[in-house]
Protein: Biotin carboxyl carrier protein of acetyl-CoA carboxylase
Amino acid sequence: MKADTVVCLVEAMKVFNQIPADVSGTIAEVLVKSGDAVEYGTPLFRLA
Structure:
């Protein structure tokens, strides 16, 4: 993936927010499950 590629959607109060990548790389691991509650700053992915 390249920087600025949308890597996921986060739903907050029925609004879906696109989350872009900050850096280029490959997603090696997803750190949260669909439906998990997350807060600002929570790591979502581990990059390789």
Summary: The mean pLDDT is 92. The chain has one domain: 6-47.
